[in-house]
Amino acid sequence: MQVREVGDRVVAVENTGWRGTSADVARRASAGDSSFISIFWDLNANYKVTQAIDGKLVASFDPLSVQHPAPVGDTYPDWITELVFTDEGLHAELLAVVEQQTSVAFDQTWLTEPLPTYRVPS
Questions:
Q1: Higher per-residue confidence, 1 vs 93
Q2: pTM summary value
Q3: In terms of domain of life, where is this protein from (predicted)?
Q4: What is the pLDDT of residues 3-18, one digit of tens each?
Q5: Which run of H or E residues covers position 53?
Q6: How far apart are CA 117 and CA 49, in angstroms?
Q7: How far apart, in whole angstroms, are the C-alpha atoms of residue 5 and residue 1?
Q8: Confidence grade of residue 122 (pLDDT, cut at 50, 70, 90)
């Protein structure tokens, strides 16, 4: 995992990892008047959005499987009714969600700039 500060926010890029999809990680990272959001995708077309605010899980779902009401095991945030996720633009749509929720715009250098890398224990 690579971590950087962007203003008063922390951005973690987890190449080939999935720790950020964990509800427990989201709750712990957002405890104490904080917020956390994670978007995940892989080469096998698996997707997940995970979000917590003040230690409470508010989102945990596959953006391509959104249905109403939410299926058992999924948690939908209030903002989900404002969006329609599509196959063609999904990555950009997910990055736009992060920007909308955090006021931090994705910067392509996050994927190319060398930074110290850390292993996150399970």
A1: 93
A2: 0.90
A3: Bacteria
A4: 888 988 988 888 777 8
A5: strand 47-53
A6: 23
A7: 13
A8: low
CA distances 104 to 42, 65, 84, 96, 121, Å, are 22, 26, 21, 9, 27
Name every residue whose Cβ is closer than 8 Å to that of residue 42 and which is 6 or more positions away in sequence.
18
Q: Which long-range contacts (CB under 8 A, 24 or more apart) does 26-32 make?
A: 26/50, 26/51, 26/52, 26/57, 26/60, 27/52, 27/55, 27/56, 27/57, 28/55, 30/54, 30/55, 30/56, 31/55
Rounded to a whole number of angstroms, the CA Rg of the chain reads 14
What whole-number distance in Å separates Cα of residue 74 and Cα of residue 89? 22
Closest CA to 94 of 50, 36, 33, 29: 50
Helices and strands (DSSP H and E) totals, the chain: 2, 5
**Beta carbons of 37 and 98 less than 8 angstroms apart:** yes
Q: Which residue has the tokens 């990272």?
A: 29
